[in-house]
Every structure is written in C-alpha cells, then in structure tokens.
Known about the structure:
This protein is mostly helical. It has helices spanning 10-18, 43-51, 84-113, 157-171, 175-185, 187-203, 205-211, 213-227, 230-241, 247-274, 281-302, 315-325, 338-342, 345-374, 380-410, 416-441, 445-459, 469-473, 478-489, 492-504, 510-534, 562-571; strands at 3-4, 7-8, 29-30, 34-35. It is globular. Residues 87-539 form the Major facilitator superfamily (MFS) profile domain. This is Major facilitator superfamily (MFS) profile domain-containing protein.
Amino acid sequence: xxxxxxxxxxxxxxxxxxxxxxxxxxxxxxxxxxxxxxxxxxxxxxxxxxxxxxxxxxxxxxxxxxxxxxxxxxxxxxxxxxxxxxxxxxxxxxxxxxxxxxxxxxxxxxxxxxxxxxxxxxxxxxxxxxxxxxxxxxxxxxxxxxxxxxxxxxxxxxxxxxxxxxxxxxxxxxxxxxxxxxxxxxxxxxxxxxxxxxxxxxxxxxxxxxxxxxxxxxxxxxxxxxxxxxxxxxxxxxxxxxxxxxxxxxxxxxxxxxxxxxxxxxxxxxxxxxxxxxxxxxxxxxxxxxxxxxxxxxxxxxxxxxxxxxxxxxxxxxxxxxxxxxxxxxxxxxxxxxxxxxxxxxxxxxxxxxxxxxxxxxxxxxxxxxxxxxxxxxxxxxxxxxxxxxxxxxxxxxxxxxxxxxxxxxxxxxxxxxxxxxxxxxxxxxxxxxxxxxxxxxxxxxxxxxxxxxxxxxxxxxxxxxxxxxxxxxxxxxxxxxxxxxxxxxxxxxxxxxxxxxxxxxxxxxxxxxxxxxxxxxxxxxxxxxxxxxxxxxxxxxxxxxxxxxxxxxxxxxxxxxxxxxxxxxxx
Length: 572
C-alpha cells in the first residue's frame, strides 16, 4: 500500500505530547512518512514515538537522524545549505578564539615591553641556566637569545604581576549578571558585544601603556568586565543549539577556539613583538584588536539566539534539534530557584573543579612565558612558539575526547556523571604530576618542553569533564550556573600571578619556581577530588524551572488525555 506523508502542526504535537504551550506555531513539525495500512504504528503512535525523548542517558538513540550538509542550490546564499547549528559552532569557535587571543597576547608582549634584563630588577639579573654564551661567563654578553634593555618600560616583577592579573578583577564581576542577562534577553548580543568591547580596547593598549601603567591596568580591568559575560552567554546558547547526543562534541569544538586562540596569541605575539611591523610589540594589539572587530560583523549576521529565532534554518534541522533535546528543551524567562542552587552539593563541587582546573590552565597561560624567558632564557620568538605548543595538543585531545564521550553516552556504556568525573580527574591529576616534574627537569630544555606539552595534552580532556556539566545539570539555567562557577573558577586569574610574583620577587630561581609548581599541583588535585566524590551530571530537580512551567515527557509526568488524542487524530 502507498505511503502517505503527513504534516502535523507543531502546536498540536507540543500541546498534547511535549508541553501545554506551543513553542513555534508558525513552524509546523514535519514528521517522517507514516504508512497507512501496511505500517504497524498508527499516526498517533508514530507521532508520539517521534516526540518521545530518550528515557535515560545512553538508553536510546536520537529520535530523528541529523540533517546533512547538502549541495548548494542555484540562487541560495553561501551559508544557506550548511546546517545552522554547524555555523553556530564555527562562529562560537572563532568567537572564543578571539576571546582568548585578546586575553593572552599581553603575556608574551609584556616580555618585549619590559626591560627584563639589567634593568635594576634584581630578580632578573641572574639565571642559573646558561647555554654556552660566547664570552664563556655567566653574563648575557654576545648572547643571541637574550638581549638586555630592549623594552620600553621599567616595571618590576610585582608590577608585572598586577598588570597580568588586573584583567581578572573585572572578569569575575560580570560572570553572574552576564549569565542571567543572556538567559533573559538573549545571548547573541551579550556574547558579541563582550568580544567587540574587548577588541576595541585592545587597540588603545599601546597608548595607555605609554601614558602610565595605571592606565594599562584600568584598560585590562574594563576588558575583563567585557569578557566576563562571554562564557556564560556561550553556555546559554550551547544549551539552545545542542541536541542531547551532540552536546559534548559541540561544547568541545566551541571551547577548542579558546585553545587555538591562546596558541595563536602566544605564537604570533612573539613574532610580531620581534618584528618592526607597526613598531614591534604594539602590532600585537593592533592586529588582534582588528580581527576581533571583523569577527563581530560576521557573528551578528550569521548567528541567532535559538533555532526558533533563526530565519534561515530548515524545517528538518529545526525538528532534529527540538525533538532530540526532549525534556531538556530550554525555556526562557524562568524564575531562578536561588535557594536550591545555593544548597546544591553538586554545584559547589563543580565550582571547586572549575577553580582547580583554571589554576593549572592559567599557569600555562600567564606564568609559563615568564618562566621560559627568565629561567630557560628563550628569546621572544621561541618563547611564543613553545608556550603555544601545549594548546595545540590541548585542542587535539579535547576534540578527540568529546567524540569518544558522546559515543560512550549514546551506547549507554557509562552514565553521564561517570564520564564527566573520569575525564575531569584525568585532566587534573596528570597535568599536576607533570608540573611537579618541572623543577626536576632543571635547566634541561628538552625535558621541560616535553613535560609542558604532555601536561597541555592531558588538560584538554577537561572540556568533556566539568566544562559541560552545567548544561547537564540545568539546560534552562546553564548560563547562570556557569556565571557562578566561573566567578569562583577565575579567582586564580589574579591570585596566581600575585603568588608567583611574591615567590620569585627576591630570588628568581628553579628552587623558588618549584614552590609555585607544587602549589598548582596541590590545588588541582584537591579540587578534582572534590568533584570526584561530590559532583554530579544528572538533571537536577530545580534544573527545569518551576513545576508549572516544566515540560512533561510522554510516559513520565503527563500523558495526553483521550480528548487530546481525539483532537490530534482529527488534525491528522
């Protein structure tokens, strides 16, 4: 018997099966062809089957196959034939690339900006590591790798620590309000403007630096305020755009932009600082600031807050995203259950995991370039290249781990909580142990670089550890939850440079640096243990808003009544 394609109005399905309110009445839900006569399921049963989400983690596959990239059709715009969620992931990747390149470029540029050798800063006058200088002494004479007095500014280690940490003074302030505003008013503008503001301010850093280091600190604080909203806003959008079994992959791919951004900033900042292009180190800020402004234009044109609001999304992709989110479909303008959130043991464990992981991550981001320059005596170009190597490996391992994690979930091999704890523990313990080995490597450059690279590779799997758990616990409040944990998680941003400055202010040696590495390792392991014992990646009771507004999954809290079934049958 012939097979008939049936179009079911979206409001009918969502009102009777998924929730009591229509999400997008103007966009009907197109189900696959329903066979009449020779098919086993009736139209009503097939519709219910389509709308029924996976019951438990890994217990069922997605209800609808993902739409594929099709051939470009004549008359279409270039991006129209690419799935919109893929465009979102790409632009999110480039967005976080800009976020981190704008944040990190100062770490390398500062080495070229400051008179770090023979400048009166006693902790920089001597290094116990020497590499065959031409005069055979322990001085820098005729050393082609380290030339004194090349910088413009005479800032001591303490001042440099304040400058590097000042970004995070502003960064922690806007985390929580940024997440909530993104959930209520929309994350697209919030994320875009956060990057754009930081990019514009980056362009004026050379002027501010030459005016006074206090002006540079003020610029960095304001940049922190701007970037503080970016991660909560991005998590809010990931909750909107990610089908359940693509969540780990989408999150890791977007977050890979941060690692690539750090790698790009560390690499190209070194080359630009050593060149004569636009005056050397000022070129670092001009180039990255300009690229951030260009990205903003494309972001606003190509990306929208949610599938419902996207004017170019196909019906097929829209259905795939909405149906496969199931009972985790994000709702907007919900009242935040502050008391249950504050009492959540899992959230506090997640916050500690964020704190410990970032302490190790920011060690690579802001401290390692100084160690390579002042202890291992790498020049500015090699410093940037070597500092970027861990981020290259981090990007690779994070992408591979995300695919593996989604396979484990889809096949039901491990629960989501077990997967998150496994990867998070690995991402903390392995880098911590490798950092402890740094003082043991001493002046051996090969071993030092190898340890840093392996630590960066291990750190990459954190993207499918704690980093995606906010969405697992509460898709509706993912932005707010990330705002909370990122506030706590970024305290190391200004605490760590201060600790490093205090430890090395009197004596800049491998011995004093070893204390810093031991502290970083201890913080990372202790915080990972807290998440291992008390963390969770289960959807929380408060995670879907109030009971009155919570969607009911078929076969769980609410089933369609007989009257609803009759209405639906008549519509078919």
